[in-house]
Predict the structure.
Amino acid sequence: MLTVQRMEPEYLVYPQSTSSPVEWIPELMQNCAVCGDRVNSCRLGCPACLGCIVFFRRSVIHSSKYRCLRDGNCLINFEFRSSCRSCRLQKCYHAGMKPSAVKRRDCLGPRRPSPSYSDPPILSPEADVQLIDRLIRIQNRQFEEHKRQSVSSPRRADTSDINKMFKWSINNSIEWASQFDPFQKLTNESQKVVLSEYGFAFLLIDQAFRTVSEKANGIWLLQNGTFLHPDYNYGQNGRVQESDYQCTRSHFEFVKSLQIAIQKPFEAINIDIFEIAALKSLLLVSPTYPKTNIFSEYQERMTSLKSKCCTELLEYLSVNYYETHVERFGTLILILGEIRTMVKALYNQTKMSDLFNSSRFDPYVRSFILS
C-alpha cells in the first residue's frame, strides 16, 4: 500500500483566527479587481489574486518601469494579464492597490528560520510566493541530496544504481505531487497509477538536467553521477562478456533516443531551474495516465492548476527571456510530449535490458512498474 505523507497544499489560504485549513476564505469569494481571477487577499488595497499581488509587489519593490507597445490600451484579464506589464501595473493602481501596503520583508529579516533537511517537507504558507517558486525550494533540496549521495568518480551504472534511481525518483515525485490537493484526495491505488508514469517522467527530467548542467559528453548521467553510454559494454570492468545482440541494440537506441529527445532540446535552450520545475508541474496537472478519468472528480481544479502553472511560466519567461518568450514557451510544451514518449521507452527497457531488469529491483520499485 502506497504511503504518502499528507501535506497541506501551499496555495491554500489560512485564516488568522484558527489553525484549521480551509479551501478559501468565504468573504473573498469574488473576482480579482485587476484580472478577474480568484481573489486571494485584499491586503494591498483591493481584492486581488495571488498572481497580481506578486506582480504588484515585485514592481513596487524593484521600482520597475514598463513600456506599453500599444498606447496603453491593452486588454488585461485572466487570459491576457501577462501580455503587457505596463498596462497591468496601471490597472493595479486604478483598482486601488497601494504601494504603501507593500511590506518589504527582506529589510526586516525572515519570518522564521530556514528548516533543516531533517524537517518535514512542508513549506510555510506565505501568500505572496507563487506555486512554482515554492516547488523550486523542494527541487533544490532534492538536487543537493542527489549530489551529496553521488559516487566519488563517474562510472558505468549497474542494476543497483538503476534501482536506486527509480526509488529516488518515486519518493521525490511523491513529495512533489503531494503539494497538489487533487493528488492528495486520490485513493492510494490511484496515486500509484499516477506515479507509475509521473515518477518515471520525474526521473528522466532530473537525469537530463544533470547531464546538461555538467556538460556530459556522449553519456547520459543518472542522479547519483553514474552514467549510461550508447555502447552497452562501455565502461565495464574486467572481461566483457558477449551480450545478446538484441539487448545491446535496444540499449543503444534507448540511450540515443534520450539524448536526442530530451538532452538536445534542454541544451538548445539552456534550460534553467524554473523551467525544470514548470515541466514537472505541468506533467502532473496535464496527465495521460493508463487509467482513464483518474482525476475526473477534480477536473475543474486540475484545469485551474494547469492554467496557473502556464501563467506563472509565461510571466517568468516574459521577464527573463522577453525577446523569445513565446517561442520558448512553445518549445517547453513540445518537450512534454517527448518526455512522455521516453517514459514508454523506459518501460520497454525493463522488459528487455539486463540493466533495467525489473526482477532484480526492490519490491517497492517493481510495484510501480507493474501497477
Remarks:
- Residues 325-352 form the longest helix (28 residues).
- The CA atoms of residues 123 and 137 lie 9 Å apart.
- The first strand starts at residue 220 and ends at 221.
